[in-house]
């Protein structure tokens, strides 16, 4: 059942380049949310998309989408602020590109997770103020378009569990308000763009299970609000940059199953809030000094360094601050020395 929110919403404009514009602008340059023509255009765009009207289950729908259209949320003026059709009964399929998003100037949330989306992500040409975009768990292919960087007010972007390929666009760093980025479980390749360091509000950055290669960029350390970094199951190489110690709010740091080598930078010792660290299945050679640092972590609970072929020795002779720690050193063929001369 559609609902009406009795709170003003931020203005958002999402425009697909191959559609004509549906944006209604007042003489002051602001979107005229009360313009009857705008409300009519929103309703027409929903009907013409075929998402609901081609489904016999929704033959009862009225001409007012704010009244009874499932997955439609409106503001007090009757303008659409959210589109999230129910996944259990409505599959968008190849009709994704038929929706003229430029007709929704007050849209702040677009949730199309698990709607059987097919094809590529439509090219976005007009910078909107959309805050939440979820396209996860679909069958989208092709590249993540660079035009995504035009959505300057985007706070959450989730395109996980698709079949996207190609590089991560440099324009991702233009999303200055982005707090969460999840591109996991795709086929993305190329390096992590150094421009990602420009998204200073990021709290969660998930690159898990792709084909990303190259080294981890130094600019990761610019993300002062970052709490979760997961680059596991990729093809990254080179050492972990010492700048990662600049992300002092990190709680979860996952490097599992890459080709990361060298020593672990002592700057990780700056991560006093770290709870979860996974270095397993890499080619890390030496952790001797690092072992003394992790023993001082007050929040630290989980450490995995298994399956590191070059791993030789670790010094954890200093006692841990807490006793609830899980440590795994298994399957390290070159492991020679473990100093635990003082108790945990």
UniProtKB/TrEMBL annotation:
Keywords: Cell wall, Glycoprotein, Leucine-rich repeat, Membrane, Repeat, Secreted, Signal. It holds the Pfam family LRR_1. It comes from the Eukaryota. InterPro entries: Leu-rich_rpt (IPR001611), Leu-rich_rpt_4 (IPR025875), Leu-rich_rpt_typical-subtyp (IPR003591), LRR_dom_sf (IPR032675), PRK1-6/SRF4-like (IPR046959). It is found in: Membrane; Secreted, Cell wall. The keyword Glycoprotein applies. Transmembrane segments: none annotated. One of its GO terms (cellular component) is membrane. Belongs to the polygalacturonase-inhibiting protein family. This is Leucine-rich repeat receptor-like protein kinase.
């Amino acid at each position: 059942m559609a609902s009406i929110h009795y709170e003003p919403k931020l203005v958002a404009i999402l425009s697909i380049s191959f559609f004509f514009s549906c944006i209604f602008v007042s003489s002051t340059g602001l979107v005229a949310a009360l313009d009857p023509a705008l409300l009519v255009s929103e309703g027409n765009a929903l009907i013409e998309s075929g998402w609901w009207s081609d489904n016999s289950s929704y033959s009862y729908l009225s001409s007012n989408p704010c009244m009874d259209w499932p997955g439609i949320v409106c503001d007090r003026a009757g303008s659409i602020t959210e589109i999230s059709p129910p996944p259990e009964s409505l599959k968008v399929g190849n009709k994704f590109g038929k929706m003229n998003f430029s007709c929704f100037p007050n849209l702040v949330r677009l949730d199309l997770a698990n709607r059987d989306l097919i094809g590529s992500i439509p090219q976005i040409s007009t910078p909107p103020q959309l805050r939440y975009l979820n396209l996860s768990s679909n069958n989208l292919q092709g590249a993540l378009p660079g035009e995504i960087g035009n959505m300057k007010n985007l706070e959450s972007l989730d395109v996980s569990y698709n079949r996207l390929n190609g590089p991560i666009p440099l324009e991702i760093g233009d999303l200055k308000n982005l707090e969460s980025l999840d591109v996991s479980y795709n086929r993305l390749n190329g390096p992590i763009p150094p421009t990602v360091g420009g998204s200073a509000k990021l709290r969660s950055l998930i690159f898990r299970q792709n084909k990303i290669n190259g080294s981890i960029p130094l600019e990761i350390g610019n993300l002062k609000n970052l709490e979760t970094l997961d680059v596991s199951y990729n093809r990254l190489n080179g050492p972990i940059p010492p700048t990662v110690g600049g992300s002092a709010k990190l709680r979860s740091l996952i490097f599992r199953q890459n080709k990361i080598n060298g020593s672990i930078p002592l700057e990780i010792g700056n991560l006093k809030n770290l709870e979860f660290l996974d270095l397993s299945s890499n080619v890390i050679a030496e952790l001797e000094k690092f072992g003394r640092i992790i023993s001082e972590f007050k929040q630290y609970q989980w450490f995995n360094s298994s399956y590191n072929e070059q791993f030789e020795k670790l010094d954890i002779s200093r006692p841990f601050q807490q006793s609830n720690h899980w440590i795994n050193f298994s399957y390290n063929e070159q492991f020679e020395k473990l100093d635990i001369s003082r108790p945990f």
